[in-house]
Amino acid sequence: MAAPVDGLDEALAAVDAFDDMLTAGLLRPRADRTAGLTGLADAVAGSPLAARVAEAAEKAAAGSAGEDHFVALAAARSALLGAAHDALAARAEELTRRTPDDPGGPAAPGAGQTPNLLAAARSWLSDLARAGWQGIDHDLVSGAAPIVSAMLPDISLRRLATLLDGFAAELAASCPGASLERVPARRWGDLWARALLLALPGATDAPAPATATGRLLPLGVDLHEHATAVQAQVHAVLEPADGTAPRLLRAAVSVPKPDTVVEAGVWQLLRPHMSLLAALGEGRAMDLDSMPVTAEGDLIWSEEHARPGEAADAFATARVALPTAAVAATAPLDRHPARLAVPVFLEGYAPRTDGGTTVFDLPSGPLAVDTDRIPTAGPLTPEAVAASTACIGLLRWDDGTFTVQPLAVETTVRKKTVALHAGAWAGGTTDKNGVRAEKAATDAVKVLRERAGRLLRK
């Protein structure tokens, strides 16, 4: 895991140099700072993007870049990060001895999207690139609001609308850009490039979903929480009913939430929308019958295609089924090092603490544990991870190194081996801490509903 990946550092350096240009803005770039543009063009010189990116870099260096040029630069930046993703994914495949599934057939045309709204989004994103992160102000950032409002009613545009809304909110909270002491250049560069590519007609076209039938065995849940939204993404192994090889799949549910609902309270917002969460909390499998599934391995969850199954222990699944499970291919626009999340099972390690970081000493070498990703909405704690003997986790790559995010661990309590899961409270709990958090969330939601009702009556 610690061995260098050929070309990785050079690709990331080219991205960072371009991000420095975005920070300063491309309206009137200084002659001594255009190396980021030429470096980006040089990095893709051997690809089909070469001519378009070289022209875009030349126009941007002269301060005369248009929308098409910004799209070409965003594509080059995304291509470099996609190549980095592929190299790291190949390393993860070597470590896990898994091979990716067939990516599926050709993309099917998506629902017709409103061209003028996509053009408006690209125009706003182009204005951001000209101003740069140090040049943003409230007038510029607020230009996204009418675009987002017009997109949200259209389900085919909701993905882009959500991205633009969150991006604009981050920028608004940082205005004016001239006063920023620290700029999250990589993050904002990621959001800008992804939004610009998603705003191209046909960008979200994908192969038609297939169907999944068989026994779904949950491994764990990855909880993503924001002040106004929360998502639970369940990682699981499907044992197909036709006897073919098991497959790694994901199922996710996302809901908006008030910022007063935190910790274990988020489960009551998520639980009504996906019975899989209750099965996860109860340690049960789910029997699927023709559940739609994308080529990337994401189940399009529908309760009419699922019913609770028999008891299923996640650690038994990790030991028996996970090693032979095939992993789904990654969608082109999702190829990014930050998106790597490979389910793994670890045991036979010696946990230790190194400068405040938990490390698993494996026979193949040390592996850092990302305990900051452990949600507070469950009984799993950094202390339990540090005393564990086995771990189900997600292999990730961050800041130049592989890490593991624990989803569940086995540890010894009073001379007995017990399992602690990050999603143990997903289906409900009798744990006093979980009960207290859910009650507080229930009270907060009740108050908010009463206030909303009064406002509507007025």
State the gist of this model.
The chain has 458 residues and is α+β, with helices and mostly antiparallel strands.
Please explain how this structure is put together.
The protein is α+β, with helices and mostly antiparallel strands and 458 residues long. It has 14 helices and 13 strands. Strand 12 and strand 13 form a beta hairpin. Helix 2 packs antiparallel against helix 3. The model has no long low-confidence stretch (mean pLDDT 90).
Describe the secondary structure blueprint for this structure.
Elements (H helix, E strand, L loop, with lengths): L7 H17 L10 H9 L6 H12 L5 H30 L18 H17 L6 H4 L2 H8 L6 H16 L11 H14 L11 E16 L3 E12 L6 E10 L9 H5 L4 H8 L1 E10 L4 E2 L6 E6 L2 H7 L21 E6 L2 E5 L2 E6 L2 E5 L12 H5 L1 E11 L2 E13 L2 E6 L10 H26 L1
Parallel strand pairs: 3-5, 10-12
Antiparallel strand pairs: 1-2, 1-4, 2-3, 4-6, 7-11, 8-9, 9-10, 11-12, 12-13
Helix pairs in contact: 1-2, 1-4, 2-3, 2-4, 3-4, 4-9, 5-7, 7-8, 8-9
Distance between the termini: 61 Å
| Topology as a string of helices (H) and strands (E) | HHHHHHHHHEEEHHEEEHEEEEHEEEH
In total, the number of strands is 13
Strand residues, percent: 15-25%
Structural class: alpha+beta
Report the total helices.
14
Sketch the major β-sheet: 7 strands, mixed
Helical content stands at: 25-40%
Q: What is the radius of gyration?
A: 23 Å
Low-confidence stretches: none
Compute the average pLDDT.
90
Q: What best-fitting shape do the alpha-carbon axes yield?
A: globular
